[in-house]
Amino acid sequence: MGMYLLGLDIGSSSIKAALVGSEDGKCYAMCKFPESEMHISSPMPLWAEQDAEHWWQNTIEAIRAVLLKASVSPSDIIAIGIAYQMHGLVAVDNAGKPVRPAIIWCDSRAIPEGHYLTSRLTSTYIENNLYNRPGNFTASKLYWMKVHEQSLYDKVNKIMLPGDYIAYRLSGKITTTITGLSEAVLWDFPQHQPAHTVFEAGQMDANLIPVHGSSFDTQCTTNESTAALLGIAVGTPISYRAGDQPNNAFALGVLQEGQAAATAGTSGVVYAVSNTLRFDEAGRVNTFAHVNHSRLHPKLGTLLCINGTGILYRWIKQNLFFDKTYDELEQLAATVKAGSDGLILHPFGNGAERMLNNENTGASLLHLDFNRHNKNHVLRAALEGIAFSFVYGIEILKKLGIQIDHLRVGDDNLFQSRIFAETIASLARVEIVICKTSGAEGAARGAGIGLKGGLLHINESHLVSPAVVIKPEEPSPALITAYEKWKVSLPAGGA
User: Fold this and answer.
1) Helices (DSSP H) in 321-429: which residue ranges?
2) What CATH code is carried by the domain that includes residue 432?
3) Are residues 275 and 221 in the same domain?
4) 77-132 confidence digits (pLDDT tens)
5) Which residues neighbour 61 within 8 Å (Cβ) at sequence distance 6 or greater?
6) Do 37 and 130 belong together in one domain?
7) pTM, 2 dp
8) What pLDDT is stored for residue 115 in this prediction?
């Protein structure tokens, strides 16, 4: 009888679950639920909310599905790891019930509140203690609640990130992590403690922060309710927790200075690890505690986020190519030459873009010629426009002193498109290493490391499967011209 590690990836689109062998590190099954994407509610402009209870119900179904697919008994699970969508706010009352829908990562309502908190903090404190401005992160979302929903705020007993909420539902215990607090801009790095100064700036209660530990600490274990619901033994350790981007980097073996990971799902990210702070005065990138960060041995992840990536490609499929598969879209895009015959698409239609100075510019299609262009040109321009946004982001990182020679990526989402990956590789002059792994698998392997005692037991060879490598080719003159025109035409806030 084998023993297994259960990994959960709590996304805004779906919940993914993976079962990994505790001894051989092999992924035996992976499932997601629901098959169609979870609903994101937007009751007001700039808002993005989800019901945390829906995450929990879909987590239950994903766990049941993966156990059934692998023909594994739930009693054979010996540890659980959780990855999750970053920067969300789940606020619960004394009974542990959410007082309102979760405010998720792509919600842009709290930008003014972030500006206010920033005005109440010194620039020295922001740069040297927080490593980030409050921006539109969890701290600002909590302050938005205090300003605009005082009656609800008064009911709040604890605040959590999305992964913390799932750990709570599995265990009955409310906890969080250092990396989670850093992504909320509620962690004071030099003091190695929650950022009480931020709470004071917003006249908020610092007691709202739960008990916290490292990503590999076993802070809680499954309870009798979970055992009755799923059959997982009481006391099973929840021994790993991290936001989706630190976890993606971990799953890809990106743990040391000079290494970088990328992903291009609903949003796109470049995430580079370093031992020292890379503070961007313009606030275009952010620095968080990586999963292997400690006070004595700092490991920091500098994250560049692009909100409008895969969500644009999905929008084009649903509205222009609803009868086509993604493989067929790749074939149609290949019928158009590099540069999309002068058509330019900016993919920024999913909220405020940090690398455009936190402006919500919207997406735009430029130079459309009714006599030359058809929907295949729009398709190619979308793939190139998303790739251009990655190249532009890598240029920002390089200006901050972060040298990226290769990107490690998973074999999913937009990196399955050869056109997309080759455009990035050629223009940014980076090697793209595509690995066979996933966020849910990474979370499962993280649980195994946490079970063994944490950071000292990380073995990179156990995290990454054999890869395909896309080497940078010399870009065509048409592609170079297209990228330069794309940059020049960036909306306000960009170049």
Assistant:
1) 326-333, 375-399, 418-428
2) 3.30.420.40
3) no
4) 999 999 999 999 999 999 999 999 999 998 989 999 999 999 999 999 999 999 99
5) 15, 33, 34
6) yes
7) 0.89
8) 94
